[in-house]
Design brief:
EC number: 4.2.3.1
CATH class of one domain: Alpha Beta
Pathway: Amino-acid biosynthesis; L-threonine biosynthesis; L-threonine from L-aspartate: step 5/5
Helix content: 40-55%
Number of helices: 19
Structural class: alpha/beta
Strand order of the largest sheet: 3-4-14-9-10-13
InterPro entries: Ser/Thr_deHydtase_PyrdxlP-BS (IPR000634), Thr_synth_N (IPR029144), Thr_synth_N_sf (IPR037158), Thr_synthase-like (IPR004450), Threonine_Synthase (IPR051166), TrpB-like_PALP (IPR001926), TrpB-like_PALP_sf (IPR036052)
Bound molecules: pyridoxal-5'-phosphate
Strand content: 15-25%
Protein name: Threonine synthase
CATH architecture of one domain: 3-Layer(aba) Sandwich
CATH topology of one domain: Rossmann fold
Shape: globular
Largest sheet: 6 strands, mixed
Cofactor: pyridoxal 5'-phosphate
Length: 463
């Protein structure tokens, strides 16, 4: 199994190489050369398996010879052991035919733990075997960073730097990043928005001298290994609801297009997914692109679902690559237009291809709050604002004949202000992290400037 770049000008890599490098050297994202297929029989055989066993069977064909079977089984077991729920990704019912996939039982209470916990184990194993170390730099709107710090804290083979927009993450998110006291993890607050943090991260990866000097590695949602880890719960949920003998639809609250792209891969593997619905908040570049064919950045409007407050949706490039018939040159040209002109028009053919796979909806701030209140009053669920965006769009787009699964991407206690404003109830943190507000914080402030950030990293990495 080889991985190729969406911009067509970087060498094809193995799973291990693609995972360790993150972004391709031509600026593109790695995707599998071809998508392994699971037959109806293979999918039926997942009935009754644990989450870990399902993960093994879904991911195995993507990994080539990176890990042998016994090692892979161990790494998966270690990744999900810290979760606070035996099912890992339990389904609860909201209404007739509408289900919520709770992806917030991991150590930092958001779905990103599913991928990050696994990547932590994969990196440690692969690097130890190679006898080498790397520097991981990530940009976060809050949840990626806390999940990464949690997954990598204390590991020998890795130093971790997480760039987050100062003052624009929730207090729970910030504390999850700033309270771990291991010397290999660093939370860096930069001036600006998430898109600024992400832009500096990309600049750093494109500075090949620095990239090689500190052996830079990325774990943002552009890392293929993360997308792959997220494919698993589309299978576990659909199988619980009767796949492959019954089709299931999914609605995914999304910003960076990572989670929904994982659903697309599940479908390409053979999982019968009827509809795959993109749910955005008021930062709706994806919804505008899908409806009008124009992918154009605006300014970020901070919302009560901050983990989706972005304008450049990195993983969308992977969907474009397929929609343009895997023409890396065409994708590279679009990305140039995006960089120089702030956007591009999607060709008619590509737009049609995208619409075959994805529907979309957009939810305003008022609708998000109203949804949180109504879910509490009528469905017995406290939703985080991101999940509420999903549930709202799912209700609008649902076909009553097909079960709809909405992904609940974070625990309500991670965004308590928005939940309290909508319901009057302040959701409590699970007991295992009840002392979060009592732990001392370590914060580093930095300018939104490439060379300042590179200097900081050089000084702090363990030699
Ligand atoms: C990251 C995140 C999202 C968006 O996920 P993408 O993969 O970037 O689309 C949605 N909700 C929450 C809570 C998140 O942390």
């Amino acid at each position: 199994m080889k991985y190729v770049s969406t911009r067509g000008r970087a060498p094809a890599l193995s799973f291990e190489e693609a995972m360790l490098s993150g972004l391709a050297r031509d600026g593109g994202l790695y995707v599998p050369e071809s998508v392994p297929q699971m037959s109806a029989g293979d999918i039926r055989a997942l009935h009754g398996l644990s989450y870990e066993e399902t993960a093994f069977r879904v991911m195995r064909p993507f990994l080539g010879d990176t890990f042998d079977d016994a090692t892979l089984g161990d790494l998966i077991a270690r990744a999900y052991a810290p979760f606070g729920h035996g099912a890992r990704a339990p389904l609860v019912q909201l209404a007739p035919g509408h289900f919520l996939l709770e992806l917030f039982h991991g150590p930092t209470l958001a779905f990103k733990d599913f991928a990050m916990q696994l990547i932590g184990q994969f990196f440690e194993e692969a690097l130890t075997r190679r006898g080498t170390r790397v520097t991981i730099v990530g940009a976060t709107s809050g949840d990626t960073g806390s999940a990464a710090i949690e997954a990598f804290r204390g590991l020998d083979a890795v130093d971790v730097f997480i760039l987050y927009p100062h003052g624009r993450v929730s207090e729970v998110q910030r504390r999850q990043m700033t309270t771990p006291d291991e010397t290999n993890v660093h939370a860096v607050a930069i001036d600006g928005h998430f898109d600024d943090a992400q832009a500096r991260l990309k600049d750093m990866f494109n500075d090949f001298g620095f990239r090689d000097e500190v052996r830079l590695a990325g774990v943002n949602s552009i890392n293929w290994a993360r997308v792959l880890a997220q494919v698993v719960y589309f299978f576990s949920a659909a199988v619980s609801l009767g796949a492959p003998d019954r089709a299931v639809s999914f609605t995914v609250p999304t910003g960076n297009f990572g989670d929904i792209f994982a659903g697309y891969i599940a479908r390409r593997m053979g999982l019968p997914i009827a509809r795959l619905v993109i749910a955005t908040n008021q930062n709706d570049i994806l919804h505008r692109a899908m409806t009008g064919g124009d992918y154009r950045t605006g300014t970020v409007a901070p919302s009560i679902s901050p983990s989706m407050d972005i304008q450049v949706s990195s993983n969308f490039e992977r969907a474009l690559f397929d929609a343009y018939g895997r023409d890396g040159g065409a994708v590279a040209q679009l990305m140039d237009e995006l960089k120089t002109g702030g956007g591009f028009a999607i060709s008619q053919g590509a737009l049609q291809a995208l619409r075959e796979h994805f529907a979309s909806g957009r939810v305003s701030e008022e609708e998000t709050s109203a949804m949180i209140a109504r879910a509490h009053a009528q469905m017995g669920e406290l939703l985080c604002p991101h999940s509420a965006v999903g549930v709202k769009v799912a209700e609008e787009q649902r076909d009553p004949a097909v079960p709809m699964v909405t992904l609940a991407t974070a625990h309500p206690a991670k965004f308590p202000d928005a939940v309290e404003a909508a319901t009057g109830l302040r959701p409590a943190l699970p007991e295992r992290m009840a002392d979060l507000f009592a732990r001392p914080e370590r914060i580093t402030r930095a300018e939104n400037d490439l060379s300042a950030l590179e200097t900081l990293i050089r000084e702090r990495i363990r030699k």
